[in-house]
Amino acid sequence: MNLRYLPFIAAFAVLMAGCRQQNNPVVEKQLKDLLAKNEYFKLDARYKQSGIELDESNRLYFKAFIDNAFNRNEECVKDVDSLFNLANFTAPDSVKSTLKRLQGDSYFKTFQYLRAAQCDSMILSKYKHALHKDVIDDINNDLVIRNGLKNIPAQQTLIKANTTIPWHRDMLGLIEFPIKANAQNFDAIFDTRANISTISKTYAKKLGLHILDVTYNEGSGATGITFKTGMGIADSLYIGDILVKNVFFQVMPDSILYIAPIKVQLNIIIGFPVIAQMQEVHIFKDGKMTIPATPAKSDLHNFALDGLDPVLALKSGNDTLSFHFDSGASTSMLYLAYFNRYNATVLKTAVKKTQGFAGAGGSEKKEVYVLPKLNLTLGGRTVTIDSVSVLTKVISPGEKFYGNIGQDFLNKFNEVVYNFRDMYFEGK
User: Fold this and answer.
1) CATH number, domain 303-427
2) How far apart are the C-alpha atoms of 253 and 255, rounded to whole Å?
3) Which run of H or E residues covers position 142?
4) From the CA atom positions of the chain, what is the Rg in Å?
5) Count of CA atoms in the C-beta half-sphere (13 A) of 158
6) Cβ atoms within 10 Å of 75's Cβ, excluding its own
7) Taking the domain 156-291, which CATH number applies?
8) Do 156-291 and 303-427 agree at the fold level?
9) Running DSSP on this structure, what letter comes out for residue 397?
10) How far apart are CA 175 and CA 287, in angstroms?
11) Dist. CA 57–CA 207, nearest whole Å
12) Which of 94, 231, 233, 243 has the greatest number of beta carbons closer than 10 A?
């Protein structure tokens, strides 16, 4: 399911006239430009500085995107409702569509599937004429999923005490940890960038999933390949002593989850909705994972969400860059945006190669430049990743980020902390 947004920004005009506050056009343009590039961290910082330089409509508009990006979904829903309820609210239908899609995403991330579906239906009934065909196709695909789930109770995660469980690496070098479902124990991959937890048809039967009569389009982030997938619900599963109820899985044919070049069958992948609802996860290099009952606060502000995709801010040289963050990828890769920004350095130091990329649905060969090393800084610590591929073409339309950070980066730390409540990532 491609729930990552196509670019949020169409031409953005002043949304409301007659406010008591005067809009500062310079500030408005700065915020628009940052949002258009999905620069959520810089957008948030500039927004906090704006003070009274934005009128009410612009304040709510940018706040909605910021609240969504930093996992404050209830606030995002309220922001969009407040904006639409302003007496003099006016905006192009393309902008109204973008706002309702944003609100639908926040409903989905809080497991309010019916309300998310209602947002999609409103867009298609009122604003379809203002949208590109690719966007309409994505919304229709989302609507299939959300209508399929509209009678399913919200996912719940019950954490009564600090929980510690073991983990190990699979043949791909990915983190696997134990889960229990249908009175059986299984190993599952821990994958922050799996928008939805995923399971093979064989294992869906073993876990006793309720299969829904729904199919929709899904895509592989590594290859860009698209394919059909189904849906199923696990009434409950356990992660240690943590009980997770009403877990939605996308159910795929075993062949889709078979990585042919290395002859590896994937079976169960626990993705973003389950991981994020645990609120905070510590992964130690020695094979231990802990989930505290009470998440800790931090001054770090380096973790965001682009739809259902985690985004991590890292320093590269003097620049702070935003990357997709994928614990289900064994290696990191850099996107076209990185190639374009650092073209001279890449052409001077990297080696041009044709590489194979494997993922769900198959494998593809891509032309890349391989950098001998890449230095990235998280907090106050700089680490070096060796042999990083730089892509020369986009994987998906609307691609804005500089790359995808995988296990070769995470392995440099003795402990990493994912916090989805206050949205920070820490490496120790």
Assistant:
1) 2.40.70.10
2) 5
3) helix 133-149
4) 21
5) 9
6) 16
7) 2.40.70.10
8) yes
9) T
10) 9
11) 48
12) 231
